[in-house]
Amino acid sequence: MTPLPRRHFLAGTAVAGGLLAVGAPGDASAAGGASASGRGWADGRVDKPFLALLTEAADARVAEVVDGLDAVLSQLNDLGQARPAARGLRLLTSVHVWGDAAHHHDGALIGPMTRLVDALAAAQFDDGLYDQGAVHSPPDTAFSIVDLGLVYGLLDADDHGGTKAIRATLRKILLKAGARLSTGGVHTPNHRWKVCAALARINSLWPDARYTRRIDAWLAEGIDQYDSGQYSERSATYAPIVTNPSLLTLARLTGRPRLYERVRRNLEATLHLLEPDGEVETVHSRRQDQKTVKHLSEYWLQFRALALRERDGRFAAVAATVQRRGADQTFDETPLGDFLAEVLDHPELAAPLPGATAVPEEFTFHDPDCGLVRIAKGTTRTTLFGGTDFPDVHAISSGLSTNPTFLKWRKGAAILDSLRLSPQFFSLGHFRAEGVERTADGWRLWAEVRAGFHLPLPPRHRRPDGRYPLTDDGRFWSAMDFPHRPKEWRTLRTEVRIAAADGGWNVDVEIGESEVPLALELCFRTGGTLTGADPVSGRQNTYQLVKGYGTYTVGDDVITFGPGNGSGPRQPAVVDSGERYSWLGGELTPAGQRVLITGRSPLRYRLTLR
């Protein structure tokens, strides 16, 4: 797929009329009833239901954007948040230029669009940047510039007299931002690619060697992608919203077709992370989505783009599923109507999808780069996770994978969102596996943690004034010169073996040698019915399975779990998140209905899930 020329978008003629013209320089102008440009357009072949769905949704969003204009401008003027304003302008632009929209060339939109672009110009610093969460931030500015570059391209191609002043203001914003983005820095891996996409947008309108040199410099660092296809942040928040769209934009606007391969590999890995209800597995993420639920909808146009480019029936099936669900699904950052602008910018996305082929439904997928295992069989989906960063860096921080969930299981609509193990060992917190490996009958996860009692300093390290440096003993800091002290160690070893059994799982836990209380925490998705477990006093939505078996039921789907392992003061119904959390007043309590099975190490215990 070759890059399209600068001025390109879908021009007006109703979908119902059976024609769809695409404007580009070198052909007739869009406004003049252009000839088609791009593969599959010469005969007017378009996915009419797809375009109709996006058009209706975009038109429906207009009132929401206009009615919320004051709030968005307040965010921009008072807090420097440019993204909502840029995204609102993008939505209004899409329906203004698109001939099939109810708001096509609607004069009532010129006022709101002008207010938005003027406010964006006023909020932009002299150096071309915005705040948006960080003062004078190049990467945060890039998010808005990508949208504004798209907006300018659509308005320029439309060339409507009512938007002439808007385009002039946009030009000033974009050129001012381009000068700074071509020299500024970033915070995170995905920021590099967003900055490159922003520069590629501006360069496609007003070519400048400064922009291309900066793009070349960032790309020369290499794309941060593992062999498995996941990017280094392992995130379903950033892959579909930032990295993949940026790489697709760069591939298209700067003539780098090899970048399509990067997106393809990420989408192939994502095929194994999809749940039947449209959720995406995130337990392995290094970003904030490691503890939230994300959805397939953000990946929609990426699967569509690669399905069309490579005639991949698997990707076509995923894109068709999102289209079929339409508004009856959860959208995260991008509402349904906001996708229209991207299709107008890249009209080849509106071509009919190739024939769908089956996506993986029965599989065992092991991603060693992320320490993740996904197993699909019938109506069940299982996630095993042994890939946190904690064993390597011993820190809890943004940018690290620290989720202690090591097993998740879905049995139809009955969802065990999390299985965790929390020993009360020197307040070091949850069991976080050091890895996950295949065994003869299933899978194994393991970890070893230790804590020391500190002995007197050797004579050569003693100070008569007692003023030792602040150092870290792995749990806390103190003026004790910990590195030079001999230790008396206490060790806790944990091994979890997981094997399929009777349509479910046997989870064998062995923990020792130190003697400490512990709790297995099963967290079920809110909405089902729990039986067999007793409420824990003073803790909402928390129960203890003392004996026998419990059940969790949603409709006709039932998960049976157990057995209980007793109770008592030596095995309290307590989950210890660890001092790294408790010192800051934090905790790791997952949302849902939580069932604790308690014990005391050394312990061998089999949890059955059926």
From TrEMBL:
This is Secreted protein. The keyword Signal applies. It comes from Streptomyces malaysiensis. Residues 1-30 form the signal peptide. Keywords: Signal. The keyword Glycosyltransferase does not apply. The lineage of its organism: Bacteria, Bacillati, Actinomycetota, Actinomycetes, Kitasatosporales. Gene3D superfamilies: Chondroitin AC/alginate lyase.
